[in-house]
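Escalation from tier 1.

The customer reports that the assembly of two entities below gives different structure tokens on two consecutive runs. Tier 1 could not reproduce it. I'm attaching the input and our single run for tier 2 to review.
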Amino acid sequence: MKALLKKDVYLLWKSAPIALFGILFISTFCAFGRQSSLAMLFEIGFFAASLVEVILQVEEANRWHILQDTMPISRAKIVFEKYLFFGFSGLLASAVQALLNTAYSLVVHHYVEAGNILFLPMIIFAAAMLWGSIILPFFFRFGSILGRSVYHAALAIGLISAMILARKVKLPDHIPVHPLVLMVGLLGAGVLFCSFSCLLSIHFYRRRELR
Amino acid sequence: MNAIEIRNVSKKQGEFFELKCEELILPRGCIMGLVGKNGAGKSTLIHLLLGMIRKDGGEISLLGAGDAARHKETLEEVGVVLDYAAGIPGIMKVTQVSGLMRGIYKHWDSEAFDGYLNRFEIPHSKKSRVGHLSRGMLVKLNLAIALSHGAKLLILDEATNGLDALVRDEVIDLLMEFTREEDRSVLISSHMIGDLEKICDYVAFLRAGKLALCEEKDQLRERYLLVRGTAEQLAQIPDEAVLGRRGNAFGAEAIVERTAVTQGMDAAPVPLEELFIMMEKEASAS
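Tier 1 run:
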């Protein structure tokens, strides 16, 4: 597992360094431009999780996934490693954001804001988990090329449905829950969603015929 | 215990193709050549063996392990070289391959791998990338990987196709060297039947998804002869003794069971390539 993760990090570094710099750039903008809107934080998270797409595409282009299937690694382990990888990308993006926020607070305010350091990066991590959990089952079911098209179509349908639903149902402006409880709740829901997605991907990948 | 046992395996792919393999057995310590024209089902059979695709029915045993136990532990002892180039991502350095494989195979032998890199003259300086290697080098790299984790069974799926004669010869030498130890076996599919003839103990012939023949090479040679003569001379041989025939303006030739060959006939040992070409032609004609 460690060797596979190391390989993925190397492949990412070599095939899409610009994506890593992209994350760093948006994070810096969020921290120092004081533009940490929810949408931007989500964007960083989505960006971080979608790095796993790059890896899957590089692997399929080289037919590594076929060779890997002849090696003593179970398909469940292969899927789990990819989930670990996007979790790792999300954590990395969150850590970068936390560091930059800390730097900003120390330079400008000369003190550290706990909310900026914990809560905002947490949103990035949650977004990464959410996004990765949505996209990966498509990749393991259909492969990287078809999977990408299918999840884009599914996402468009999902977003339009959500917009229609949001117009019909009036959501409350304020949720009467302590932020810490909300944070733990979100994290718990994220882990559950991620686990479900991982099991679904394992199921899909085990059934897929590789040739 | 046999290295490979396949019994009554079937696999339907799409509307028009179905692989049916009644019985294919590769004893330990032997090399089996898997031949057949394009689309005959060679790769499908190998993918079934490795569990990459699901069979519709039948039994497959690899190194004594049945279906349920096959994955993981068994694959530790199987080295595979597939028909397409490499599989190792091209942007990786050759020097990183060993580190990656060490994390995958329990019995990975870095020294043996480095030895093969040197022996095959695969460039492995700090800057050499897998993507920069030629097709021949990639096959050798995959062979080096397949040979460096203590494999008991090597499976090569058209790995030598498209390689020059020199590289193919090196691969053949290597396979012979590999099977010097008694418990090591090789299954190799190839269109280079001449190469297979040099090394194989057993030959399996797939035709349109069916296993038409699976026999010891020496027995095949013992049983059949290549008979040359005029069309009239060959017409005297009973049809049931003829495996295949062909003719042209200069005469005719047929592969005939040794028992049906009479004195005075121009008979010679049959090269495997001729045997398969004629069998294929006979099947197409009928």
